Amino acid sequence: MRPSGRNLDEMREISIETGVTRHAEGSCLIRCGGTHVLCTASLEERVPPFLKNTGLGWVTAEYGMLPRATHTRMRREAASGKQSGRTQEIQRLIGRALRAGVDRSALGERQITIDCDVIQADGGTRCASITGGWVALQLAVNKLIKAGDITTNPITDHIAAVSCGIYAGQSVLDLDYLEDSEAGTDSNFVMTGGGALVEVQASAEGSAFSRAQFDEMYVLAAHGIAALVAAQKAAVS
């Protein structure tokens, strides 16, 4: 039995509320159970120096957790003067994941930055950030299209992410904190709406996992991604 009482292949409740900030070109608040992440997309008519005069756009991301997103207060990273290795790793993952669903030539020489701020954490914050980040990105692109700044939608497919793991010897979908903290294996699957893999992160926290167990997690992930993509479609429709 999972601590939440969910079935092995059952996702937490998903909700995506759009237009939650006034100034960002795209924004949403994604809730995956007890994990809540504010995602905003900011458009700039410039690109990093290495892309200047290439005709290619850029999508990047920043990630952070508010001090009381967890059970005890965390010190703001700005107060220490540097980001943690975990923060840097997660925001690079978000950027890589979202770029996999973007035709950068169709975007043109402009940059969209996705800011993902974790308001409340209960496992799967990076996955929620990717899933909500895609929604914010699509909303920002919609404004470019409506304004006539671009004629072709540069977003080629949905991008979403979900966690899977081996908890109490069984493969489970969408781990919350209680499961994640005790899981023998923890994995994150980033996939397109078409079911193609973008990135997989999987590690054994205890004993090694088998190919059969990995395949079980992969099947669960595909099931979860389908639910997340359906939520994304409803949010941007």
TrEMBL record:
Protein role: Phosphorolytic 3'-5' exoribonuclease that plays an important role in tRNA 3'-end maturation. Removes nucleotide residues following the 3'-CCA terminus of tRNAs; can also add nucleotides to the ends of RNA molecules by using nucleoside diphosphates as substrates, but this may not be physiologically important. Probably plays a role in initiation of 16S rRNA degradation (leading to ribosome degradation) during starvation.
Catalytic activity: tRNA(n+1) + phosphate = tRNA(n) + a ribonucleoside 5'-diphosphate
Domain Exoribonuclease phosphorolytic: 10-140, 159-221
Domain of life: Bacteria
Its EC number(s): 2.7.7.56
Protein name according to UniProt: Ribonuclease PH
GO BP terms: rRNA 3'-end processing; rRNA catabolic process; tRNA processing
SUPFAM superfamilies: Ribonuclease PH domain 2-like (SSF55666), Ribosomal protein S5 domain 2-like (SSF54211)
Stretches assigned to coiled coil: none
GO MF entries: 3'-5'-RNA exonuclease activity; tRNA binding; tRNA nucleotidyltransferase activity
NCBIfam families per UniProt: RNasePH
Family per record: Belongs to the RNase PH family.
Keywords on record: Nucleotidyltransferase, RNA-binding, rRNA processing, Transferase, tRNA processing, tRNA-binding
Gene3D superfamilies: GHMP Kinase, N-terminal domain (3.30.230.70)
Chain residues that bind phosphate: 86, 124-126
Quaternary assembly: Homohexameric ring arranged as a trimer of dimers.
Pfam families assigned: RNase_PH, RNase_PH_C
Tagged with keyword tRNA processing: yes
